[in-house]
Write a structure and sequence with these properties.
There is one protein chain. The protein is of the alpha+beta class. The chain has helices spanning 42-48, 62-78, 96-99, and strands at 7-12, 18-26, 35-39, 84-86, 110-115, 118-122. It contains 3 helices and 6 strands, in the order βββααβαββ. The chain has a 3-stranded antiparallel beta sheet with strand order 1-2-3, covered by helices on one side. It has a 3-stranded antiparallel beta sheet with strand order 4-5-6, covered by helices on one side. Strand 2 (18-26) and strand 3 form a beta hairpin. It starts with 6 loop residues before the first strand and ends with a strand.
Length: 126
């Protein structure tokens, strides 16, 4: 991924609409600070007519969160990772060392957290 920089393409939303998307690798100084960001721009969600704000903090769609979590789960089967986060502008918001294998009880974002080799998804609940 780092050889290709910022990738842009299209993806089919769970609602069936084809929209633009992007993916970028953010390399840190050590293994714990590498991020792979996959995103769908808010404008693309607008153009697709997908509701993504329901009064909760930040933009959120349970449909999109579950879809993005499914992408993360599939990714984990091919390339294990120590933490995945799902939500609006979540890159760098937490790290695996801070969570120490424990899913937060109150979650403003979704977490994909591996415990003993099994990936668990905790959807946003606040």
């Amino acid at each position: 991924m780092s050889a290709f920089g910022h990738l842009r393409s299209q993806v089919r939303l769970p609602t069936g609409q084809l929209v633009v998307c992007g993916c970028v690798a953010i390399r840190g100084g050590d293994e714990s600070s590498d991020w792979l960001d996959f995103y769908v721009p808010v404008g693309a969600l607008d153009n697709a007519g997908l509701a993504y704000w329901d009064g909760r903090p930040f933009f959120r769609s349970d449909v999109m969160d579950d879809w993005l979590a499914a992408i993360g789960k599939e990714t984990f089967t091919r390339a294990a990772f120590s933490l995945g986060v799902v939500g609006f502008e979540v890159s760098g918001c937490s790290d695996a060392a801070t969570l120490a294998g424990q899913m937060p009880q109150e979650r403003g974002i979704g977490y994909l957290l591996p415990v003993d080799g099994t990936l668990h998804y905790g959807a946003a609940n606040t």
